[in-house]
Write a structure and sequence with these properties.
Elements: H1 36-39, H2 41-48, H3 54-68, E1 71-74, E2 77-80, H4 84-95, E3 99-104, H5 109-121, E4 125-130, H6 161-170, E5 175-179, H7 185-192, E6 197-201, H8 212-216
Helix pairs in contact: 3-4, 6-7
């Protein structure tokens, strides 16, 4: 029998966010076998000790306050009020981050320009680096002529997320914003980026950079996403 593994995405009810009074303790007696709150108590206790570090605790506290400020109570109930870019600026202010690093895809150059203008208008300094920095040919990483987007015979610069990260590291930015890097390239950037970072938007060439659109339509227009693997 295989070892049980965490499967929060399959939980029939979210017991870790109970609707109880603050002086009560959540119960996991009815939680499914795959609940990590039951399976991984040792890891939970160990990781909680990280919040005892002053800088981590304060960062987490400010993040939670920022989450709180994204909502407001009205006669009709709780509603949201702050878009993500405004939330990002507010969180940067809370932490005293003034020098912002912006790593973006050239396909979102116009968006990067607007984001820079928005941050600079609020008094931030913005250092930006595009994905094609250095104009390094794709042959450098083994791309063949027939694997170029523009076709054989054309010069194509490789996406260079490691250099993007290292340039922002060298500039000693306080906070990094990721804007639209390709799948895989974003992974490399995150791996090499040293300052704290967040993602403003991810790339989705088909849905106007709204990847959840395909998820929401996976029972209809994008039902091919649910095809069963061939044996």
């Amino acid at each position: 029998m295989s070892k049980e593994r965490p499967q929060c995405a399959k939980c029939p009810r979210i017991l870790c966010e109970p609707d109880i009074a603050s002086d009560l303790k959540p119960s996991f007696e009815e939680a499914p076998r795959f609940c990590p709150s039951k399976l991984k108590q040792d890891i939970i206790e160990k990781s909680l000790r990280e919040y005892d570090r002053d800088n981590v605790r304060e960062f987490a506290r400010l993040a939670s306050i920022q989450e709180f400020q994204c909502y407001e109570h009205t006669p009709d109930g709780i509603r949201t009020k702050i878009p993500r870019i405004e939330e990002t600026m507010q969180f940067a202010e809370k932490n005293g981050f003034r020098k912002i690093g912006l790593a973006f895809c050239t396909g979102l150059a116009n968006e990067a320009r607007m984001v820079t203008e928005i941050f600079e208008s609020s008094g931030f300094e913005v250092v930006s680096v595009c994905c094609k920095v250095g104009a390094i040919p794709k042959e450098r990483i083994g791309i063949k002529e027939e694997e170029k987007i523009s076709g054989p015979g054309w010069y194509e610069s490789m996406c260079n997320p490691i250099t993007q990260a290292e340039i922002l590291n060298s500039e000693e930015v306080d906070f990094v914003i990721l804007l639209g890097l390709c799948v895989g390239h974003d992974t490399l950037f995150i791996r090499y980026c040293r300052p704290p970072m967040t993602v403003l938007a991810v790339k989705d060439r088909v849905t106007g950079h709204n990847p959840l659109a395909a998820v929401y339509l996976s029972h209809s227009y994008y039902k091919r996403l649910r095809r069963k693997a061939k044996k």
